[in-house]
Amino acid sequence: xxxxxxxxxxxxxxxxxxxxxxxxxxxxxxxxxxxxxxxxxxxxxxxxxxxxxxxxxxxxxxxxxxxxxxxxxxxxxxxxxxxxxxxxxxxxxxxxxxxxxxxxxxxxxxxxxxxxxxxxxxxxxxxxxxxxxxxxxxxxxxxxxxxxxxxxxxxxxxxxxxxxxxxxxxxxxxxxxxxxxxxxxxxxxxxxxxxxxxxxxxxxxxxxxxxxxxxxxxxxxxxxxxxxxxxxxxxxxxxxxxxxxxxxxxxxxxxxxxxxxxxxxxxxxxxxxxxxxxxxxxxxxxxxxxxxxxxxxxxxxxxxxxxxxxxxxxxxxxxxxxxxxxxxxxxxxxxxxxxxxxxxxxxx
Length: 348
Known about the structure:
By secondary structure, the protein is an all-alpha fold. The chain has 16 helices and two strands. The chain has a domain at 74-312: Orthogonal Bundle (MetI-like fold). The protein has a two-stranded antiparallel sheet. The radius of gyration is 33 Å and the shape is globular. Residues 317-345 have low confidence and may be disordered.
């Protein structure tokens, strides 16, 4: 028995040790998670938390320092009856229309011209894109001198051709036109470059086929270029809508007075300007948060409208094209049949 026990112990000591367990998949992925964690930490602190906190304070009355007071939906119910808020919405929509519509049309024309240009193409691309990277404060100050009531360059030009000067920065429509001009000048080159990228993605064979069929340049532009640029137009329309509804710096720099942030009569007060005035001047942070979420709903609504008007009808357009193609094919076959019958009758 002693020999057998000794033999058993010696065999057990010479047996191979048990293999280590493989690390879990979470431990294997730990270095990768650690590498990307700074982004998520910064996003949680400076992105997600402010958004969630703005929702929270929109249901409270808070001056930023004292105790929060729960008010529920009173901020939003007052928002619906606040005349200054609706004035800010009206001003923002008017400025958005005055800037976005001519900006996109002009950008499309410029992109088409750059696409067909053969010389200095790179120079023109850089020249049109420079306004987008220029300091917005500096640009607004320059346009403020252009639209100045007494010594503005625009009034000097009007007087040089025999017209009377216009107090651009004192009249409601003059203020809106001045702000819209700044937005248009700054973003027209950016959208033109995007349109140019979309034009370069269109095959040249389509244009050559249209030219062989005898299509004029205007017909080629409206019946080929514009329909094929529908996704790009949708993108620029949505981004211009998002940016146009968040206009703030232009009116803030033009009218630096904190007592009347939107200029005479509040004609330049936008939604973001009213948010800034409510939260950081009047110290009504709860009401400012409610204005911010109302702006978010408005942006989503107009983005959906743009998608439905510009991009949502692709299937309908395709069905119309199929019906038109089948109809033209039917007419062509009918014409060929009638011509063949006429030739047969002439032969007899």
